[in-house]
Amino acid sequence: MSFSIRKRKVAAAAKAAGVDGLLVTHLPDVRYLSGFTGSNAALVLAGERAVLFTDGRYTAQAKAEAAGTRVVIAKKPVLPAACEWIEAAGVKRCGFDAANTTVAALESMRKAVSGKVRRGLFAPVGSLITRLREVKDADEIVRLRAAANLGCGLFDRMLELLRPGLTEIEAAAELEHAARLSGAEAMSFETIVASGERSALPHGRASKAKLPKQGFVTMDFGVVLDGYMSDMTRTVHFGKALEGERDVYDAVLEAQEAAVAAVAPGVTTGDVDEAARSVLRRAGLDKYFTHSTGHGVGLEIHEGPKLAAKQTQALEPGMVITIEPGVYMPGRFGVRIEDMVLVTEAGGEILTPSVKAWIEL
Fold first, then answer.
1. Does residue 170 sit in the same domain as residue 308?
2. Quick one: 67 exposed, middle or buried, by C-beta within 10 A (0-12, 13-18, 19+)?
3. Which entry of 44, 136, 165, 314 is 20 to 30 Å from 30 by CA?
4. How far is it, in rounded angstroms, from Cα 96 to Cα 106?
């Protein structure tokens, strides 16, 4: 991975935004540009200079992880320390990401510099780095493939372990234990296991409810591997399907596959959303599809681009997105199917190729 190339791209974006410096405080952005994984840091970019500020807990770690970036172990809170350096370095206008900067942080930034430069020094420039992170480089794609493959293996394992009477919490614990044994650093988010009527909850956290003898079980989970995250959802069924259950599942699967097929460079994220939504509309189920079709995934579980109705952003090769339509019928059941998809020059490549056909346990 070339942090220097990433820094040059960010520096060019900052220059185009009219600033000669950039203060980076969003930790995933700091990691993207320096490799540093600690919990307290600020990174300053000014021309060809890059300085990472952190505290004494990370003296050895920062020097090991952020090779190629000057490291300063601050003797005061890192944000004021970084701002004092910005002023001393002669930066005239320093950009910051307003979406990831609190009012309190901005006040701290302003107080850290002298009155003569305070008014015009800091300028909101939008999420420059977050937008650049939407298109993954070759190293990132390798890591995302590995995380996705690990997730697929977990689903295969769960098919052997799931049984009626097991609680949702127990099922989630089995999955997370298997993830750790397989090398996952952490889960991407709190594992969702929702069964029976609870499968109609789009974000139904695992509960003490027992898996039913008859009904759906939805599992939405992901792992963190080398800092990069996976995300996939599969819905399986215990026992023989009741009237209408298989039809809903087949409609969601058709919608999901239609959206995957729509993925290609230049296609808008709104068009991908519509590809899924139109299938459910024809089936009379669109009113039960209550969220967007997907999102980007990488160092964070929810990144750009957003795949939702009326979105106009065009897909680009190197983007990694999720495709996850669902149908949720309160008091009855829900079905969601989700894959990670890499946008390539030729279209969309599924990174989570676990079986999606109807599974009856």
1. yes
2. exposed
3. 314
4. 9
Q: Please enumerate in sequence order all residues whose Cβ is within 8 A of that of 152, keeping only pairs 6 or more positions apart, or say none.
A: 232, 352, 353, 354
Helices of type H across the chain: 3-16, 27-34, 59-65, 78-88, 103-111, 115-121, 128-132, 138-161, 168-181, 245-262, 269-282
Pairing mode of beta strands 320-323, 339-344: antiparallel
Q: Phi and psi (nearest 5°) for 335?
A: -140, 130
Contacts with 193 (C-beta within 8 Å, 6 or more apart), sequence order: 168, 169, 171, 172, 175, 204, 206, 217, 218, 219
Residues 143, 128 within the same domain: no
Handedness of CA 280, 282, 287, 292 (dihedral sign): positive
259: closest CA among 353, 337, 357, 149?
A: 337
Tens of pLDDT, residues 245-284: 999 999 999 999 999 999 999 999 999 999 999 999 999 9
The CA distance from 108 to 220, in Å, is 39
Q: What is the pLDDT of residues 116-153, one digit of tens each?
A: 777 889 999 989 999 999 999 999 999 999 999 999 99
Burial state string for 223-245 with b = 16 or more CB within 10 A and e = fewer than 16:
bbbebbbbbbbbbbbbeebeeeb
Among residues 107, 132, 157, which one ends one of the domains? 132
**pTM for this prediction:** 0.95
Give domain status of residue 356, yes or no: no
